[in-house]
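thread: overnight batch results

M.L. [08:02]
morning all. the overnight job finished for the chain we discussed friday. pasting input first so we're all looking at the same thing
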Amino acid sequence: MFQSPPEGSQGLEPQPKEPAMILDQRFPWMWVLGLGLLATGASPEQIYTPPVTDPNFIEECVSIHNELREHVSPEGADLKYVTWDTALAKTARAWSKRCIFRHNSYIGKKHACHPYFKNVGENLWMGDLTKYVPKMAVTAWYNEGKHFDIGNNACSGVCGHFTQVVWAETYKIGCALRLCPNLGKDIAIFVCNYAPPGNLVGRKPYTQGNSCTGCAKGDICENRQCRNSTREEISSYPYWNPSWEFPRRINCNLFCQTYVIIRLVGLAGSVLCVFVLQIIYPGMHLEPNL
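M.L. [08:03]
and the structure it wrote out:
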């Protein structure tokens, strides 16, 4: 016999609560966080600035430079393949975190920006922060080439960023990306340093001619560039940072570490000796000088 459902009931199996409702009841703070993200329009791609040790960031910076150098027009005979340099990246990081859009004032000082190269080159970019900044910035620098006449070594506009990107003698780069709220919402500064530096007065950025015909002895030709395994070795410079960096990073090399350890061991030994002597000679005390 059919029976009517009890009063107040719908006569149906209990329905599971919507996940959103469960989330609302158990974790109300997550709704606040979610609304905050929606309100700001932020996303991981927009707010993430990779460290200078990030492999993907390094690969993107190096690959876009080599790709553009490979396709330089007119064709270049002596362009070297560029690889990453950690000291140049540290210099770029140290300057970018100041969040001022002007060239590094220490660039012209010998060894102020690199422990091996006396001087380095520099390119700057400022704009909206996205995950495509390295490619976008380096391409913008390269596009200045439309104003440059390689035959006459003359420029009809702004060309300095382009000539540094394609400078034949440059074979090391290091870059850094920094979000700078003081310059505007989601505004970032992208800095790349180069060694050996380009833009030497009176010199062309590269020799015009068939690719690799101007490579040095011992180099091999690959993707229209001169490659050399010795030149492309990557050094880490673990104990070097720019002396002008603020706040300054503390460096402690092997000698420094050994000295600190010896001092700590000596201090611990002295304390232990005093403790042992007090146990052996409990009544021992120092007599005042008469």
